[in-house]
Amino acid sequence: MARRRRYWTSAIIPSNSMALVAAAAPSHTSVVFLLLHIYLLLFSPAAAITFHKPKFDPTDASILCSGGASASSGTIKLTNAHYGIEVSRVVYGDDIPLWSSATGKLSDFATRFSFSIDAGSGYPSGVAFFLAPVGFQAPENSAGGYMGLYNYTDRVHPRARKQVVHVEFDYFVNPSWDPPFRHVGMNINSLASKVVAPWNSGPRPGGSVMVDINYTVSTHNLTVFWVYENGRNSSLWYVIDLKEVLPERVMVGFSATSNDYSGEQELLSWDFHSNLEMRNTGRERNFRNTKMIGLVAIAAIAIAAFVFLQMRRKRGGVNKGMNLLSMTDEFSRGAGPRKFSYTDLVSATNNFSLDRKLGEGGFGAVYRGCLSDSGMPVAVKRISRGSRQGIKEYTTEVMIISRLRHRNLVQLIGWCHEKGELLLVYQFMSNGSLDSHLFGENSSLPWPERYNIALGLASSLLYLHEEWEQCVVHRDIKAANVMLDSGFNVKLGDFGLARLVDHELGPQTTRLAGTIGYMSPEYISTGRASKESDVYSFGVVCLEIATGRRVVDYIEDGLEMCLVEWVWELYGNGNHSVTIDKRLVNFDEREAECLIVVGLWCAHPDSCQRASIRQAIQVLNFESPFPRLPEKRPFPVFDKAASCESSDEPLLSYSTTDCDSI
């Protein structure tokens, strides 16, 4: 049974408060107070939509079937095993508020559904979950590969404002627009997918697929996770502002088509939740004029507040942009990294010549240099000019890493911001980065060095997470950021994305940042960076160290495959030894198994089931027994709660049998 929750916001302004606002001299607080109460007057009530359909009742009026779709025996037949061409649709009966033009707010939403495809000897097109304008009808001649959402005209003359977003489970390959394999794709106003992933493990005849699709406003991230009955799972994500693509209210549902003999496709269950606070349409029509007057008033007050704050800044207020002078003052306080002149660093790097270039990352390039006054070899990072994010990375790196002292962290020697340049000076690492040794064609690290590198990296994380005065969440742990000195000792570097968190507080919601493959499922979905998301990245690096393979690699039959998924599958079959790097002639089998187990434990899809970094170290040192891991990789489980201990109600949280068996 669908239920619509309503949350009412108070629109009462105490008379004494209004008197204070009117009588007091203009202040930032009073402006904010007045804006807040005008907002409360204009925007109430609020609503959230949630429904739960573990099975389907033919008499349920909230689920609308059309075309070849029909409810029977608790499921909905999308297509039947017969000859014929038709479009089948299942949609929720009420429209869904997605965003509000009045507030500019966009809704999070989460949906979970399960379906089955029994191809038999046929060629089913697949199933698509879609969001479209209310009343959207299937175009003419949209059966077959058009998924009931597009037709030939749309393909030849695409319309920029068609306003359809869909996630497709495409069983039949159409060479004109599909990749050359069965796939899961995310599509925006087009038959051609923006991102795709191979649909490698199609369900067995009669088997089911469980799917989670989530949209997170804070990161604008649309994610899809899917898992089969055999436990194998995959994921896909795409960053998009749905406000730019879809109307305020949408219809949601499923589309499937038959094309000659198509086999059977069934929808087995469907849950949905959205949380947009939005006024109902009746009040919106009745108070449209009032709203316009209110918006004008808000604009006037906002302008007044802006002028007031600008005057305050001119009178000596703090400039939040932190100009170069204030940066210099801040960086120069106390002992630590010193200020270099631009001339010194130009001389040290031979004017940043190409033959001194060690590598290049997202925010700039790194050059080998030699300080003229001491002869010390250094690495100089040159932040890309004009990069706003680069400025933030620069200040973050100096402010955080300059205060850290640990044998397994790269030492920041100095900094420079002159002549439009942002430069960071580090101790030089003669053996470069870990990835060059793991994945280089002509290099292979011996096993003892590999195991010590894993221990050293774990030690650096223990210091960051638990031993320093504040918790430091690194957010970009990967093989390329693990540096090695002349003795192959670990030095973790690149703190440009790091965040400081009080030990008592939970994870912070941030803009999504990091490297694909190393980011945990819950971080991708919610944008909450935490110690647990760092531990996930550490687990992936452990698996890279043991296997000598990249996080996404060509592993089976020339297909790209997730390293964690591949290792977990072989581990569950008792064949973890097959995953060890073939270039290793001699290695300690007990340590190899330990590194694999710790890597999988830390890369567990459920953040609450992961090891802490301290627990991981204890197992790596054989001070604690191996954890018991499920044979099949569990389905990702995450929510909006700040931490595993939080009692806040999750947006939508599920677990599988595999998760419960841990």
UniProtKB/TrEMBL annotation:
SMART domains given in the database record: S_TKc
Domain of life per record: Eukaryota
Localization annotation: Cell membrane
Keywords: ATP-binding, Cell membrane, Glycoprotein, Kinase, Lectin, Membrane, Nucleotide-binding, Receptor, Serine/threonine-protein kinase, Signal, Transferase, Transmembrane, Transmembrane helix
Presence of keyword DNA-binding: no
UniProt cross-references to InterPro entries, sorted A to Z: ConA-like_dom_sf, Kinase-like_dom_sf, L-type_Lectin-RKs, Lectin_LegA_CS, Legume_lectin_dom, Prot_kinase_dom, Protein_kinase_ATP_BS, Ser-Thr/Tyr_kinase_cat_dom
Record domain Protein kinase: where: 352-627
GO terms, molecular function: ATP binding; carbohydrate binding; protein kinase activity
Protein name: Protein kinase domain-containing protein
Record organism: Linum trigynum
